[in-house]
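User: I'm preparing a small set of examples for a lab meeting where we compare how different chains pack in three dimensions. I only have the primary sequence for this one, and I'd like the structure in token form so I can line it up with the others. Please keep the answer compact; I'll paste it straight into my notes.
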Amino acid sequence: MTAGRPHRRTRARWRAGALALALLPLVSCGGPSFSSGDQGFVSSDRTVTVLHADDREVPDGEVAGQTIDNAPVALKQLEGRVVVMPVWGSWCGPCRAEAPMLADAARDLDKHGVSFLGINSRDPSEVAARAFTKRFDIPYPSIYDPDGNTLLLFRGTLPPQTIPAFVFIDAKGRVAARVLGEIDESTLYGVVSDVLGKTVKPPRGAA
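Assistant: Understood. Below is the structure token output for the 207-residue chain.
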């Protein structure tokens, strides 16, 4: 992938602004509104949106909170690095499926100036979330966000309207890209490459 104007790697091209406006009605003041089903999982067509640097904006407020291990964490602590923010829940089947790959990628991408900071959504307690991270040996922290309040901070740019979803933050703290739905290794490394401005491949070179 190469850096460029907003684009999506699926059936059609959407302008990021139009996409954000279309998705905003799905968000309520009490938290994101999800369809019925597996405790909130919303399927998607793996929409990928990457913003040109001139179109990027910071989240609408400080992205911070307590981790699932009850430690304070804030996105601003990672300023200067590209940040991948997986939105996940321990109850989510696709989240479980992609977890081993994400754990490996987080370890590998660290040397390229990329950090991961998850957002754990709709888990009724931290207990299930901690069990998930232990089971899959997840090396990065996650903000515990059962009510979806952290997700609302992205509604003015690229809101993560599905679980799983991924928000990518550039080194200046701006929202640079988003993936809706389960992610694969090729897409993850491709979007990271776009945001970094250089090509980064998985260790085995299978991008």
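A couple of notes for your slides: DSSP finds four helices and eleven strands in the chain. The chain has one domain: 16-196.

User: Perfect, thanks.
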